[in-house]
Write a structure and sequence with these properties.
The chain is built from 11 helices and 10 strands. With 336 residues, it is of the alpha+beta class. The strands form 2 sheets. Strands 2-3-4-5-1-8-10-9 form an 8-stranded antiparallel sheet, covered by helices on one side. It has a two-stranded antiparallel sheet with strand order 6-7.
Length: 336
Amino acid sequence: MARTDMVVASSRIRLARNLNGYPFPSRLKSDKQAKEIIRAVSSAINKIDEFKLSYMDGISEDEALNLVENHLVSPLLLRRPSYSAAVINHRRNISIMINEEDHLREQCIEKGYALRSAYATMSEKDNIMARSIQFAYDEQLGYLTACPTNLGTGLRASVMLFLPALTNAGYIPKVIRSANRLGLTVRGMYGEGSQAEGYMYQLSNEVTLGVTEDEIISLVEQVTERVAEMELSERKRLKTGGRSMYIKDACLRSYGILTHCAVISGEEFEKLCANLKLGVCLGYFSSSGIGWIDDLIIDMKPSNLSLLAGRKLSAPERDCCRADYASRRIKEKILD
C-alpha cells in the first residue's frame, strides 16, 4: 500500500461549464429555460454512459439529503429545486450538477491518491459532451463561469487529507498559510465555509486562469506529497513523544466504545472513528488501510441508515442502528 493512501482519502476533479446563449443559473427567469438546459445536458451525457437523471423537485427530502451526504451534490443545488437536477453514473463516482452556480458542475471522485485518473475520466466525458453542447468560451478568458475565480480552465483539483498528527502538533495554520502563498486553499470536509471534522481537510487550487490543467494538477500533487511527508513524519513523533500513551489510550478507548456501545450519535461516532483511523495509522490496530473507515462514516449518515433499515428512522432509532451496525463492521475489519 502506498504511504500516501494513509493520508489521502480521496481525489476529486471538478469542471465548471456553462451553455452558450443562456444566462447564468442565478439569472434564469423561468422553469422553461432551466428545463431546456437540463434536457440538453442529460441528452449529451447519456450518449456516453449509463447515467440517472434526478430532478431536485422530483425526489424526496431524504433522497436529496442522501445525495448531499454522499458528496454527489452540494446543498446549493437544493435551494431552487424547480430549476436544478443532477445526472449520476451507476458507480456513483461521477456526478454532474445542473443549474447550481454554473449550468454544469461536473465532478469525478476517486478513492485514494488518484488525481490523474480522475481528471482523465472527467475530461473524456467533458470532451464528448462538448460535441453536443456549445459551451460558453472566450479565446482570451477561457471557459466563462458565474464566478470570476473559476474563469479559464474551470478546473478545481482537490484531495481529501487525513491530518491528525499535524493537527495535534498545531501545524495546520502553517500548512494553510504555505498553501495560500502557492495559490492553493485548505478547507473543511465539505468545502468552502465548512469546518474540518475528524482531522479531514480539503486541499485544492484557487487559480484557474492563466494556467493549464496539467499545471494545476501538478501543483496540487506537489503540495499533497509534501504535506503527506510532513504528516507521516509527525506521526512518528506522535507515537514516540511524551504524549504517546495518551494518544494510544484515546485510540484504544475509541475502539472499545465503538465496538461495545448500544447507542451512539453521529457526532460522537465520527470523532471516535477519527481516533480509530489514527490507531490503524500508528499500528495500534491491524487492518488493511483506513479507506473502509471513511466508507463506514458515510454509510452511518442519517439517510444511509434509513436506506439500510428499509424505512425512515427516528433520531433515537438511528443512534441504535448506528451502534449495532458499526460495531459488527469494525469487529470484522480490525484484525486481532
